[in-house]
Amino acid sequence: MLLPSKLQSGQNFKTATVNTVNQIIEYLKTQRLVSDNRTIKLNQLTSGIAISAVQGSSPLSAGKSSIDHPFKLKIVTDE
Q1: pTM to 2 decimals?
Q2: Of 31, 28, 4, 32, which Cα lies nearest the Cα of 18?
Q3: Cβ atoms of residues 39 and 15 within 8 Å
Q4: Domain locations in the chain?
Q5: Burial (Cβ within 10 Å: 0-12, 13-18, ≥19) of residue 50
Q6: Which secondary-structure segment (H or E) carries 30?
Q7: What would you report as the CA-atom Rg of the chain, rounded to the nearest whole angstrom?
Q8: pLDDT tens across 30-67, in order?
Q9: Helix/strand/coil for 8
C-alpha cells in the first residue's frame, strides 16, 4: 500500500480530506511493528522502540542463556 496522492483541484474538499485521512490511517497500520510478547517484546520508549527477545521457559531452553538461542526477526509489510 502506498501513501495517498495529493488532493486535486475540483475535488469536494470534505470528501477528499476524509478519504485521504482514512487512507493514511490504513497505510500506518501496515507499517507498525507487532509482537506476540511470547518470543519478541516491543518496548515503546520516548526515543524510539526497543525490540528484545523473550527468554523461553520451555524445558528445552531451561538452563541455557538466550545467547545460545539467537532469534530471527522478519519484518512484513502489506505491499
Answers
A1: 0.45
A2: 4
A3: no
A4: 1-54
A5: exposed
A6: helix 13-31
A7: 20
A8: 877 878 877 888 888 888 888 888 776 555 544 455 45
A9: coil
